[in-house]
Amino acid sequence: MDIGNLLQQYLGGGANANAGRALDDFDAVAQNAPRAAMAQGVSEALRSDQTPPFPQMVSQLFDKSDPTQRAGMLNQLLRGVSPAVLGSLAGGALGHLLHGNEAPAAVTPTQADALSPEQVRQIAEHAEQHNPGIVERMGDFYAEHPQLVRTIAGAALAIILGRVAQGMQGH
User: Fold this and answer.
1) Residues 6+ apart with CB under 8 A from 136
2) pLDDT tens-digit readout, 137-156
3) CB burial class (10 A; 0-12, 13-18, 19+) of residue 157?
4) Of the residues 45, 79, 94, 127, which has the fewest C-beta atoms closer than 10 A?
5) What does the buried/exposed string (b/e) look like for 79-105 if buried means 16 or more CB atoms within 10 Å of the residue's CB?
6) d(CA 121, CA 55)
C-alpha cells in the first residue's frame, strides 16, 4: 500500500474535512508508518486546540484501555512525580505506591484498574503542569497502541495523519 498518496490529503491541516475518513485511513497508516512519525502525530493531537485538552484525552483513552495499557499509561504519567505529590494525586489513591520516601513502585494492572477516569484526568493535569515532556512521552506510549488511539475522535485522527504525512515527507 502506498501510504504516501493516502497521507497527501491530510497535509496542510485539512483535519476537519477529512475527519470522516480518518478512521479508515488511520488503520492503514498505523500498520505501515514509522513508529516515530506515529508518536509525533499522536503528540500533536494531544496538544492541539482542535481536540479536547490533554488531561481529558488521556482520561478518555484510559477509560478505553485494558488493565495492562492502563498501568503502562499511568507509569508514564507518574515518572518524575515526587513522592510527596504522588500521595496527594487522585484523592490519595496512589499513596499506597510509596515506600517511605523512596521512588514510587510501578503501578500494576490491578492498581490501575482501581482508578477512575476522573482520577486519571487529575493525574494527567498535574503531569502536564509539572513535566514539560509528558505530552511527547504519552504520544510515544500511544504510538505503540494504535488500536487504542483509533478510539479517539475523527478530528484528532486527522491531525495525527497530517503530522505523520509531514514526518514522512522528509524520508
Assistant:
1) 39, 43
2) 999 999 999 888 888 766 78
3) buried
4) 79
5) eebeeeebbebbeebbeebeeeeeebe
6) 5
Contact indicator for 141, 72 with CB cutoff of 8 Å:
yes
The set of cell numbers assigned to 159 is 491531525
Q: What angle do CA 23, 24, 30 make, to 5 degrees?
A: 80
For cell 483513552, what's the residue? Answer: 61
Count of domains in the chain? 1
Q: Which residues lie closer than 8 Å to 171 by C-beta, 6 or more apart?
A: 34
Contact of 171 with 48, CB cutoff 8 Å: no
Spell out, as residue ranges, where the chain has pLDDT lower than 70: 1-20, 80, 82-84, 86-88, 90-105, 153-154, 170-171
| Cα 38 to Cα 140: distance, rounded to the nearest angstrom | 8
Q: How far apart are CA 57 and CA 54, in angstroms?
A: 5
Domain encompassing residue 30: 3-169
Supply the Cα-derived Rg of the chain in whole angstroms.
Answer: 17
